[in-house]
Specification:
The protein has eight helices and two strands; from the N terminus they run αααββααααα. The chain is mainly alpha-helical. Helix 1 crosses helix 3, helix 1 packs across helix 4 and helix 7 packs antiparallel against helix 8.
């Protein structure tokens, strides 16, 4: 079974979860995701859906929509099997290790800055993390009817709360 990229796996998951849906609807799900690493660009989603279609993991169904045609994607049985494989297990160690965190990476080099700049950096990182957490809580204040989607959101909230604890420790160091 061919491995899926994370974008392909996630797009396939959205098609499975939302039922027959358009590429635009898949893009919208990526855009509102609490995972900022996802690109909701047409240059990312449309090619991923085309690759999934070529692999016969989704089926495209065209229908009239005003003067134009609308294409909806539906997951195939093979797509469901690939989705389950992508979800895992087994898991690569990198998948279960620390999350992608550019802020944490930048913090490794704070010694290159004078103390006042390090303090300003830590304060700004804390302020922006608090704002991101507040936005996440505000946008997702309505509980999801999908328990797994709600659990994923809870993971994002816990991640930002944990980052604030770490930033508090960093503030004391700088």
């Amino acid at each position: 079974m061919a491995k899926l990229t994370d974008v392909e796996g996630c797009a396939l998951g959205v098609v499975w979860q939302r039922g027959p849906c358009t590429a635009y609807e898949v893009r919208r799900e990526f855009a509102i995701s609490s995972t900022p690493r996802w690109s909701a660009s047409a240059g990312s989603i449309y090619p991923a859906l085309q690759r999934l279609q070529r692999k016969k993991l989704v089926r495209a169904e065209a229908s009239d929509w005003g003067p134009r045609e609308k294409t909806r994607f539906r997951i195939t049985p093979a797509g469901r099997a690939h989705l389950r494989q992508w979800i895992g297990p087994p898991f690569a160690r990198a998948l279960c290790g620390p999350a992608f965190a550019p802020l944490r990476t930048r913090s490794c080099f704070l010694g290159a800055m004078p103390r006042a700049a390090r303090v300003a950096w830590a304060r700004e990182a804390t302020r922006e993390t608090r704002a991101a957490l507040a936005e996440l809580r505000r946008v997702h204040a309505v509980p999801s009817s999908d328990v797994f989607e709600a659990a994923s959101l809870r993971g994002s909230i816990l991640e930002l709360e944990s980052r604030l604890v770490w930033l508090g420790e960093l503030v004391r160091l700088v």
